TrEMBL record:
<dbReference type="GO" id="GO:0016887">
    <property type="term" value="F:ATP hydrolysis activity"/>
</dbReference>
<dbReference type="InterPro" id="IPR003439">
    <property type="entry name" value="ABC_transporter-like_ATP-bd"/>
</dbReference>
<keyword id="KW-0813">Transport</keyword>
<dbReference type="GO" id="GO:0005524">
    <property type="term" value="F:ATP binding"/>
</dbReference>
<comment type="similarity">
    <text>Belongs to the ABC transporter superfamily. Siderophore-Fe(3+) uptake transporter (SIUT) (TC 3.A.1.21) family.</text>
</comment>
<feature type="region of interest" description="Disordered">
    <location>
        <begin position="585"/>
        <end position="606"/>
    </location>
</feature>
<dbReference type="InterPro" id="IPR017871">
    <property type="entry name" value="ABC_transporter-like_CS"/>
</dbReference>
<feature type="compositionally biased region" description="Acidic residues">
    <location>
        <begin position="596"/>
        <end position="606"/>
    </location>
</feature>
<feature type="domain" description="ABC transporter">
    <location>
        <begin position="347"/>
        <end position="583"/>
    </location>
</feature>
<dbReference type="GO" id="GO:0005886">
    <property type="term" value="C:plasma membrane"/>
</dbReference>
<keyword id="KW-1133">Transmembrane helix</keyword>
<dbReference type="Pfam" id="PF00664">
    <property type="entry name" value="ABC_membrane"/>
</dbReference>
<dbReference type="GO" id="GO:0140359">
    <property type="term" value="F:ABC-type transporter activity"/>
</dbReference>
<keyword id="KW-0812">Transmembrane</keyword>
<feature type="transmembrane region" description="Helical">
    <location>
        <begin position="65"/>
        <end position="91"/>
    </location>
</feature>
<feature type="transmembrane region" description="Helical">
    <location>
        <begin position="146"/>
        <end position="163"/>
    </location>
</feature>
<dbReference type="InterPro" id="IPR039421">
    <property type="entry name" value="Type_1_exporter"/>
</dbReference>
Length: 606
């Protein structure tokens, strides 16, 4: 957990979440006022009703009863108006707050660097944006209405009970204190369980996301039953925790019922005795009726308050998790006076080392000293784990170097405006991602103002236009989420076309042609030379055929540069490159070296 997330106080949580209320402050402030009006009227109605009952019991006529009836109707209408308005303003405030909160969390995630995102799993961020926001919304709605209404109703009911029934109302105080203590004890018991539940929600969502994204692999290895057992295990843990919570919370209902019955029994017994013994001088039937009503109101409010306490307890963990995202500071930010243009595509690594975290056992990159001229085509080759992708991620400042300096266009990448730098350093990542929408929509991620002609030109250079034209809807073909309705090679070519539309100073392909055939790969590189000759091209590849024609090739091993040279130079001098080439081309090194020697002799003879 990041340092910023640890030890958040309630004050920090309220301040952080409160910033998302914004334009809904008025609705939030008005709601408690309407609730106050509703509670006051509801507490006066039994008192007025008691007078009406007493008048009827004394044989009062229509003229005596009519003022009470009119007053009660007016009070009921005012109470209805206040309750309705409280509901409307509360709904507006809570849903608006949730909308703003969801927006703020999502916007914060967009500002994160890769290292910030590494602190949170994808499934956890999804849970926070959905379940946690919904829980906080429900808690906020309850805070605006029920948390105001319940205490006021309890307090006013007890006061009016003393006004109506005198010392007999003391039983209300005793019962409410005992019941409140029991509710508080139950809520404290379930609080740590709710905290565990949210962590298990993350694991459940992680299992779902992993399964759905890798469903083809699951089916190809016939691992459906294994995945179902994994999901059932995660779901089963949630089930047992919720059952445990419900068993504890189930005590609230019988406790409330017992309290209501005790008050009812006490008021009816002693009230009836007072009425009979004093011949209605100490207490009338109306007063006893009002006392019973106040007792019900008080206990129902106490039950309501207990529900709110449980909901707020559950939402408290969600609020804390949301604040963890909102207070997380991005490791990569703009400088005070950023550069707004990139002069050229030159790239320099001056003794750069990098580690993903301070806790890392080893450096991912060690003392990289590399200088690339603008317009050069550079190939990068190395085994799995040699940190090829890590190297290029420092260029677009997806991570910052731990030591040393990375320069683009002669300037430290930390001096640039982030948008400016990333618009001029286009990266086609190893995992190609297309978004739901048409092909045109996806291509215009590279340039939202691109014309249809520019889209077609970029696709021709990326060798994508041919298969697009075979679709019935052509460039208006709808791409499903994740690009599931196009092949891997088609997806790669669309992503390359999208990057070409940016016309960047530096174009990086991170193993982005692995799913296309060798002929298409060479045609794509020919397109690069004709369309963006001044752009620096950096191509990470596993196939030597993809980088043979590069100006220079970098061979990496264990986070370090093992060798730099042309294709022919590395075949002669570097064992890693030579072994890779020989293995892929299925011909011995001796045969290839013999061919090269003969070619050299012919050249010398000529």
């Amino acid at each position: 957990m990041p340092k910023q997330q640890q030890g958040l106080t309630y004050g920090q949580i309220f301040k952080t979440l409160g910033a998302s209320i914004r334009e809904f402050k008025a609705s939030s402030l008005v709601t408690p006022l309407f609730v106050l009006g509703e509670v006051v009227i509801e507490c006066l109605i039994p008192f007025e009703t008691a007078g009406l009952i007493d008048k009827i019991s004394l044989g009062g006529g229509f003229g005596d009863i009519a003022p009470y009836a009119v007053t009660l109707v007016l009070m009921a209408l005012v109470s209805l108006f206040c309750g309705t308005m409280a509901g409307i303003t509360c709904a507006k405030a809570s849903t608006g707050f949730a909308r703003n909160l969801r927006h703020d969390v999502f916007a914060q995630i967009q500002r994160f660097s890769f290292s910030n995102i590494d602190h949170f799993s994808t499934s956890s961020l999804v849970t926070r944006l959905t379940t946690d926001v919904n829980n906080v919304q429900q808690a906020y709605m309850m805070l605006l209405r029920l948390v105001v209404r319940a205490p006021l109703m309890i307090a006013f009911s007890i006061v009016m009970a003393f006004v109506t029934g005198g010392p007999m109302a003391a039983v209300f105080v005793v019962v409410s204190v005992l019941l409140g203590f029991a509710v508080f004890k139950i809520s404290l018991t379930v609080m740590p369980i709710f905290k565990r539940i949210f962590k298990k929600y993350d694991r459940l969502n992680d299992s779902v996301e992993e399964n759905v994204s890798g469903i083809r692999v699951v089916k190809s290895f016939v691992r459906e039953e294994h995945e179902k057992s994994k999901f059932n295990a995660a779901s089963g843990e949630l089930y047992h925790d919720f059952v445990h919570v419900e068993r504890i919370l189930a005590w609230m209902s019988p406790l409330m019922t017992l309290a209501i019955d005790l008050i009812y029994l006490f008021v009816v017994y002693f009230g009836s005795y007072a009425i009979v013994s004093s011949k209605a001088h100490l207490m009338g039937v109306g007063q006893m009726s009002a006392l019973i009503t106040y007792g019900f109101s008080m206990l129902m409010s106490l039950m309501m308050l207990s529900m709110v306490f449980v909901m707020v307890t559950m939402a408290e963990e969600g609020a804390r998790r949301l604040c963890e995202v909102l207070v997380e500071k991005s490791d990569i930010t703009n400088p005070q006076d950023p550069l707004l243009s990139v002069p050229d595509g030159s790239v320099d690594f001056d003794h750069v080392s990098f580690e993903y975290s301070k806790k890392a056992e080893r450096m991912a990159l060690k003392d990289i000293d590399l200088h690339i001229k603008s317009g050069e085509t550079i190939g990068i080759l190395g085994g799995t784990g040699s940190s090829k992708s890590t190297l290029i991620q420092l260029i677009s400042r997806l991570y910052d170097a731990t030591t040393g300096t990375v320069r683009v266009g002669g300037h430290d990448v930390r001096e640039y405006d982030l948008d400016t730098l990333r618009n001029q350093v286009a990266v086609v990542l190893q995992r190609n991602v297309l978004f739901s929408g048409t092909i045109k929509d996806n291509l215009r991620w590279g340039n939202q103002n691109a014309t249809d002609e520019e889209l077609v030109e970029a696709c021709r250079l990326a060798q994508a236009d041919e298969f697009i034209q075979r679709f019935p809807q052509k460039y208006d073909t709808y791409i499903e989420q994740g690009g599931t309705n196009v092949s891997g090679g088609q997806k790669q070519r669309l992503c390359i076309a999208r990057a070409l539309l940016k016309k960047p100073k530096v174009l990086i392909l991170d193993d982005s042609t692995s799913a296309v055939d060798t002929k298409t790969d060479k045609l794509i590189q020919q397109g690069f030379r004709s369309y963006i000759p001044e752009t620096t091209k950096i191509i990470i590849a596993q196939r030597t055929s993809s980088i043979e024609s590069c100006d220079r090739i970098i061979v990496m091993r264990d986070g370090q540069i093992d060798a730099i040279g042309t294709h022919d130079e590395l075949l002669r001098t570097n064992a890693i490159y030579r072994e890779t080439y020989t293995t892929q081309n299925k011909q011995s090194h001796d045969v290839k070296m013999s061919q090269m020697d003969e070619d050299q002799k012919e050249a010398d003879h000529e």
